[in-house]
Structures are given as C-alpha cells and as structure tokens.
Amino acid sequence: MTPLWRQPGAMVLEAIWLLGDNAVYTQTPFFMRFRSGTFAPPAGASWLWLVPGVSLILLALAIVLWPELLAYMVAGAILTAGIALTAWGWAMRQSTRRQSQPVQYRIYPDGSSS
What we know:
The chain is mainly α and 114 residues long. The chain has 2 domains: 4-36, no CATH class; 49-100. Helices cover 65% and strands 0% of the residues.
C-alpha cells in the first residue's frame, strides 16, 4: 500500500490546504493544470535534456578513441579564456584612460552652444 503522502494529488491537496480556497491562486491556469493531474512539461522539452546528454556521450567516446582530442579541447578552452581576459583587461584600461581625461564644461549665459 502506498503511503498517503506519495499518492497522486497529495501535493495538490496540501497546496489547497495551505492556500485555502483563495481564487487568486487556485483559479490560475497553472494551478488548474496542476490540480487536474495533467501537469507535464511542454511538448519537445525532453529534447533540451536528450540532445546535450547524447552529445556529451559522443564527445566522451571520441576522447576515448582519440585522446589527443582532449588536449586540443583543453588548449582551445585555455586559449579562449586567455583571449577573453586580455580583451576584458584592455577594455578596462581604455575605460580608465577615458575617465582620467579632464572634462571641460562651458556654460553660456545666453543659452547658445557656441
């Protein structure tokens, strides 16, 4: 016999008990679908997990077959990180240079800009 708390709809009953019969919460489309027991992920959402999983398995098999592939991947990751850090540092240096330049504000009494 399945314990009461593990039976289908037990969480829904608990949620109804906690929320009361407040229509603000219990009449939303999400709650209605959850309460009816037909709550399921959207169609095609399983591919979001299947494709990366299969890709990782294929990558692992490729590394087992060609170990030098791992060295190329690690070298590529290190190279990418190096380029990103260099670009970030260069951008910060340029920003610091622009901030250190003196700024002159001119105020003209007649409102003209020249």
